[in-house]
Amino acid sequence: MDHIDRTLLTELQRDATQSYAALGRAAGLSAGAAHERVRKLRERGVIRRTTVEVDPAVVGGGVLAYVMVDSNAWMGDSAEAFAALPEILEAHVIAGSATVLVKVRTTTTEQLQDVLRRLYAIEGVSGTQATVVLETFFERPVAVRQDGDEPAL
């Protein structure tokens, strides 16, 4: 991946709706060349999907919580069980005091409580600890490092 690909990725993360002509201008390419580069990035799996960022509070997801899930068994094979709960946006097997970390969005704290109840129905889950987010300062997209950049800390 070269600096042109990195520029295209940065621009797409900023605004995925911009035209190939605009992407090309930002990267010093023609619209056709930008389109071809983006197509190749998709084929290689660098770009997994193109999506729209929605304000969760406006569409009924105003309660955000991170839940540490304890277990009495290996949870690495439980991805489908976690994915079956639509309120769970992310699920990660982690090292540390818990086994799985999930990101949950609900409309109310009562709905969050229901999600916690349903988590206990997953085989191997022995406990949960939820942390409710009061305010989000910011969320960043994945940083696209330029050639020679040091990893971000």
Explain how this protein is built.
The chain is an alpha+beta fold and 153 residues long. It is built from five helices and four strands. A four-stranded antiparallel sheet has the order 2-3-1-4. α1 crosses α2 (20-27) and α2 packs across α3 (31-43). It is elongated. The two termini are 22 Å apart. The model has no long low-confidence stretch (mean pLDDT 92).
The coarse silhouette is elongated
Query: Major beta sheet, specifics?
Result: 4 strands, antiparallel
**Which stretches of 5+ consecutive residues score pLDDT under 50?**
none
What's the number of extended β-strand segments?
4
The structural class is: alpha+beta
Radius of gyration over C-alpha positions, nearest whole angstrom: 20 Å
Q: What's the structural blueprint in terms of helices and strands?
A:
Layout: H1 3-14, H2 20-27, H3 31-43, E1 63-71, H4 79-83, E2 88-93, E3 100-106, H5 109-119, E4 125-132
Helix pairs in contact: 1-2, 2-3
What's the short version?
With 153 residues, the protein is an alpha+beta fold.
